[in-house]
Design brief:
single chain; 396 residues; alpha+beta; Acetylcholine Binding Protein, Chain: A; Methane Monooxygenase Hydroxylase, Chain G, domain 1; eight-stranded mixed beta sheet; four-stranded antiparallel beta sheet; 6 helices; 26% strand
């Protein structure tokens, strides 16, 4: 197919043969007309090419974005599936190794039935989905990876967490989670032997998401001391009035009701209350008050006002002291050993008051011999009874 340039050139050649002069001027005019047409054609062609290229680039970009979004969605779906499913869940319960270390116990509050503890926890489990032999140890946010979802079942109020909520993933797929808890933990106490009592205090960890058939918590040996299995407790504690006797840890499911049985593990320790504080702060003041009430039997029977005043003062002092003791314990539906002791002391003081009043009355009706015999009997009898009471109180 002939191009426009060839057609124009053939026409001008024919005209040049017939009319040489006219052809020359015509060629000049046509040349001027054709050149702009050729430039316009080139410009139009370049615009079309640019338009086509831009359309192709836009389509490619849209396809790339769509593929990226689709790939991201697929990766997120896979990630969510990995988070939702336990490692090797088809092989049975997932094994999670735990280590619990009691760094400190700040206080044991009898009245509020709780204790304040500082606890370090380490969990370890194997997840083959994160194996990367050529990689390094990675630190990942806890909510971005499968985890047993451990929490404290007996926490009371706010329990703070000092460490970030992250895990360490090793190249072999081993995952480590570490956390430090500080706060109050509830502990029901049976205080019938108070203050000669000792108790087991429990720290109950549970999995909020998995039942006992799905997770198996296993105590792990300490890497520094293989003889320590499952955890330990510090040798020195900020606990002035208790002595730690022993501790133990083992896997224990949490079953508050029959329908709920969550996977979990338990760390517990036995503590014995130091009695020396209560001997000096409670027993000694009570003994002084009781002994003071006997003074009436040694005062002359004619001094009726002095004898009755001593016994009455002892009763009032004992009642005031009983209110102080009530602040040390919660309101209990049963009597403690200290309650029995204080009640017995109150009865002894009251009997002393009755004895003083009786002897004073007998003296007033001229029965001095009987009053004298009562005084002589009471002087050894009350001390013997009080000593027997102390022996019972001190007996474990």
């Amino acid at each position: 197919m002939l191009s426009i340039h060839n057609v124009i050139f053939a026409t001008f050649l024919a005209m040049a043969c017939l009319f040489p002069q006219a052809a020359y001027s015509t060629v000049l005019e046509q040349k001027q007309d054709v050149m702009p047409t050729e430039g316009a054609f080139k410009k139009a062609t370049e615009d079309e090419v640019k338009f086509v290229i831009s359309e192709a680039a836009a389509d490619a970009a849209d396809n790339a974005v769509e593929k990226a979004v689709q790939k991201s969605a697929e990766q997120e779906t896979v990630k969510q599936e990995v988070k939702a499913s336990r490692p090797d869940e088809r092989k049975g319960p997932t094994k999670v190794i735990y280590r619990v270390f009691i760094l400190d116990i700040d206080e044991i509050d009898d009245a509020n039935q709780n204790f304040t503890a500082n606890v370090f926890l380490q969990l370890e489990w194997k997840d083959e989905r994160h194996v990367n032999p050529e990689g390094d140890v990675r630190r990942i946010q806890l909510d971005e990876i499968w985890n047993p979802g451990v929490l404290l079942a007996n926490q009371q109020g706010l329990v703070s967490r000092s460490l970030p909520e992250t895990v360490q993933v090793h190249p072999d797929g081993t995952v480590y989670y570490r956390q430090r808890y500080t706060g109050k933990l509830s502990q029901p106490l049976k205080l019938d032997e108070f203050p000669m009592d000792k108790h087991w205090f429990k720290i109950q960890f549970i999995s909020a998401d998995y039942r006992a058939e799905e997770l198996e918590f296993v105590p792990g040996a300490s890497k520094n001391d293989p003889s320590i299995i499952g955890g330990a407790i510090a040798n020195e504690l900020s606990l002035p009035d208790w002595k730690i006797l022993r501790y133990e840890t083992h896997g224990a499911s949490y079953q508050p009701i029959d329908e709920v049985r969550q996977a979990g593990f338990l760390f517990k320790f036995e503590a014995d209350r130091y009695v020396a504080y209560y001997l000096w702060q409670i027993l000694l003041p009570l003994a002084v008050v009781v002994v003071m009430s006997w003074a009436g039997f040694w005062v002359q029977r004619g001094q009726v006002g002095v004898r009755i005043g001593v016994a009455t003062s002892s009763i009032l002092t004992l009642i005031a002291h009983r209110f102080v003791l009530a602040s040390l314990l919660p309101r209990l539906p049963y009597m403690t050993r200290l309650d029995y002791f204080t009640v017995a002391c109150t009865l002894l003081v009251f009997l002393a008051l009755i004895g003083v009043v009786l002897t004073s009355y007998l003296s007033s009706i001229n029965r001095d011999m009987l009053a004298k015999n009562i005084d002589q009997f009471a002087r050894p009898a009350f001390p013997v009874a009080f000593v027997a009471l102390i022996i019972w109180f001190m007996k474990y």
